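Students often ask what a 'structure token' actually looks like in practice. Rather than answer in the abstract, let us consider DUF4199 domain-containing protein, a protein of 176 residues. Its sequence is given first.
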Amino acid sequence: MEQQLKSSAINYGIYLGLSLALISVLIYVINAEYAIAWWIGIIMLLLILAFGIVSTAKSKDFLNGFISFKQAFSSFFITVAIGVIINTGIGILIYGVIDTEAAVFLQEKGIENTVSMMERFGAPQSEIDKTIDSMSGENSFSIMNQLKAIAYQLVFYAVIGLIVAAFMKKKNPDLA
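Now compare that with the structural description of the same chain:
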């Protein structure tokens, strides 16, 4: 049964990764600026959470409505980790290998957006200048920064996975 749960979570992870990769490629083809749009981030977050929760629910169904905390967390996390890793691999391929100029453009656009937001919130010019210097010296699309981003995302989704697992777990009274 454990193998069936892992296999299901892996399949959902691949579907998630392909969905995220398709969105990323479409964004690149249609208008690369969407890659740094906040609403795209929200859509991706909701898609990731939906796949993780559906994967956990499917695992619970395999177990006749009963699932341990560990099994629920594993189903969620395996799905999300595979999806995020596939999507990051596509991002590295697009912005780190195929079109590095798009990465530079998005970096500059990201700085512009940040400056605009800071000005709207009334940040002092000295803070804006510090932020520009900090962001200019760092390529957020470099392979190393992409790998760091995966690590941070996986920690974030692990916490979410713990919460989902706590809600989804259900002990089998026959085994108690």
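One point worth highlighting: Residues 2-168 form one domain. Ask yourself how you might have guessed this from the sequence alone, and why that guess would often be unreliable.
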